[in-house]
Amino acid sequence: MTYHSESDIIAFHGYFLSIGATVRPLRPNLMSEHADAMRRYVEALERGDTLEKVMGPSWRSFVKRPKVVAWMSGHCPTNSKREAYVAELSKYITVDKYGGCGDKPCYTRHPISDLCWKNVLMGNYSFYMSLENNLCDEYITEKLYNPLLHNLVPIVYGGSDYDRFLPPLSYINARHYHPRELARLLTRLHQDPVAYGRYHVWRGYFQAKILGSMCELCSRLHTDTTTSYHTDVPKWRMTSGRCKAVPYNMFNSTVGKGAWRTIISTNYDTI
């Protein structure tokens, strides 16, 4: 039982509920388990539905934020070199840093605490840096689901294929952008309420939830009579994790765009 979908049972830090659904899937953290809601949501995007159409008058509370982006962390340095990415991004846009890795207090260093999210981050920022400390396949923690739950757009940074776990146009993948390019994108979206609002349209079709679920474990205990075993769990973890190493200076301004993109990613976001 691990976070990876190749496990016998998935343990996850957050998931989604399809609004209006009567049956909860056993693995609700996977978008493939929300086929009907996904279909309706994609149709809404193709129609060009705005957040105002989906949410009504309350849409303004999502787009009127005085500040652009925040990051909260108490663990640094990291294997993913996320702190280096933030340092380079901070050259082009103000990133308010909370917790032990920053210079701003936020009630508590614990990232799950609602005090910081509700009293400081929620309502003040448009984006949140959801940066994992390791770049491993499907390794996604509460850093992703907290901003979704508290009405911010997450800027993800990890080793996962996030399309498998998130509705389209609900996040921005930092690994598809040099920090300089990301700063330009965030500035433009922050200044355009309609374009930024599109990143919240998914809320009319899905509800984000924090922490895990024991539904799959309970179902297996009651219905699965098969027997299985694993001979080398550490080897399996190394194979399934597919963790990536990141050179510390790769985000530096002097690193050429071509070299940076070759190392960090082969895919690019489009708006």
UniProtKB/TrEMBL annotation:
It is found in: Golgi apparatus membrane; Golgi apparatus, Golgi stack membrane. Its EC number is 2.4.1.-. Keywords: Glycosyltransferase, Golgi apparatus, Membrane, Transferase, Transmembrane. Pathway: Protein modification; protein glycosylation. Residues 64-236 form the Fucosyltransferase C-terminal domain. GO terms for molecular function: fucosyltransferase activity. It is a single-pass type II membrane protein. InterPro entries: Glyco_tran_10_C (IPR055270), Glyco_trans_10 (IPR001503), GT10-like_C_sf (IPR038577). Pfam families: Glyco_transf_10 (PF00852). One of its GO terms (cellular component) is Golgi cisterna membrane. Belongs to the glycosyltransferase 10 family. This is Fucosyltransferase.
